[in-house]
Known about the structure:
- By secondary structure, the chain is an alpha+beta fold.
- The chain has helices at residues 2-6, 9-36, 39-64, 130-136; strands at 68-80, 86-92, 98-104, 113-120, 141-149, 161-163.
- 40% of the residues lie in helices and 28% in strands.
- The two termini are 25 Å apart.
- Mean pLDDT is 78; it is low at 156-164.
Amino acid sequence: xxxxxxxxxxxxxxxxxxxxxxxxxxxxxxxxxxxxxxxxxxxxxxxxxxxxxxxxxxxxxxxxxxxxxxxxxxxxxxxxxxxxxxxxxxxxxxxxxxxxxxxxxxxxxxxxxxxxxxxxxxxxxxxxxxxxxxxxxxxxxxxxxxxxxxxxxxxxxxxxxxxxxxx
Length: 167
């Protein structure tokens, strides 16, 4: 329980929302089964429930074992290519090191704002193809926090917001 108190809010939201999606699907499936006696919908909603609970448990295990990494910095560039499911985000940390991230297009980041991104920590496979590299790392992204607009005067964020991308 102490692990959950010290973990970032965005990761807790990911666990909660993933579990709630599964519970919601199960409730809808049960209600539809009672209404129409359709067993297939009940079984499929049961599968969604089981897999979402398993995914929530996987994220919980990742958090409890501290097997996630954090990338924090100022967004200096966002680009996306047509017909791709991801966009390329360039982040610069306080020491001036630039990092390129590939995130799903639904991740809305703005240039000039500070962010903290969370990823599962595992071996980074690289096959050399941009398409395959993005596909292999797509499950690593856990969520991100907007830390506010970057101000050069104090190098501190103005506000803090949390975001979780449901999967």
